[in-house]
Amino acid sequence: MTVFRRHFLKLQFVLVITAILGFYYPKIWEQLRSISFITKNGNLSAEKYNDLLFTKGQLTAFNGVVEQPIYLALLGRVYDVSSGVKHYGPGCTYHFFAGKDASIAFITGDFENYKEDEADNVLTLKTSEILSLINWEKFYENDYIYKGKVIGRFYDESGHPTKYEKKFRALAEEAEFDRFNKEKLREKYPDCNIEWSLEKGSHVWCTKSSGGKERDWIGYPRKLYETGNENFRCACVKKEDLETNEVVIKPYDDCESKSQECYYYVN
């Protein structure tokens, strides 16, 4: 009877412990998930275990010089480019980018005048340059391994986007929209054919395939000024669009309004 009672008490103890764990396990697990883990390299993990957070100082260790993987950052996001060691390794063409966020240099190509405080200040760039950076970002997302984020201009100490990052993304979205509109305009007003000779000067003319756009109409050469651009391009314009208010178009001097080719000299 004593043995039976001992086993019965053990069974009760197990049931109580199981009930406690069953109640608290989800909460314990959620607490564990919220802890920021520190790796042997001193890098903090963000919300995902493979989404690391780096200070600028920590990132510099990953330059491939002392048997470390090679990381670079672009727009505050860190990528493992070790598989491209022939490009990013010590002494190679793009080793400059290893261990740092030098986003500006992707546009300027200036590897000599590196200033850490301004090297990722991308809000100073033009719209076309912002689009170029977005293309670089897509390249690294597709071709290399994303590792995490740099604490600083783009992400805070919890890995959350800063106001700066949000502003940049808003500008990038506007730039993408602007590019889309320009592409639509080029479909509607395709480029002219153009050539230059010493004897005749510049020669512009329209065909059914000028500007690389195949179509069933030819159009008339016009100077087309896009919004925010002081320079013009030669565009082929349909007869019904010659009085458009969608864009600013002007005829070429000394050229018949319904001529499909024009000659002009640039002073």
TrEMBL record:
Ranges for domain Cytochrome b5 heme-binding: 54-151
Top-level taxon in the UniProt lineage: Eukaryota
The entry's keywords: Membrane, Transmembrane, Transmembrane helix
Pfam families reported in the protein's UniProt record: Cyt-b5
Gene Ontology CC annotations of this record: endomembrane system; membrane
InterPro entries per the UniProt record, alphabetical: Cyt_B5-like_heme/steroid-bd, Cyt_B5-like_heme/steroid_sf, MAPR/NEUFC/NENF-like
Segments crossing the lipid bilayer: 7-25
Record flagged with keyword Transmembrane helix: yes
Gene3D superfamilies for this protein: Cytochrome b5-like heme/steroid binding domain
Record has Electron transport as a keyword: no
Family membership: Belongs to the cytochrome b5 family. MAPR subfamily.
PANTHER family noted in UniProt: MEMBRANE-ASSOCIATED PROGESTERONE RECEPTOR COMPONENT-RELATED, NEUFERRICIN
Descriptive protein name: Cytochrome b5 heme-binding domain-containing protein
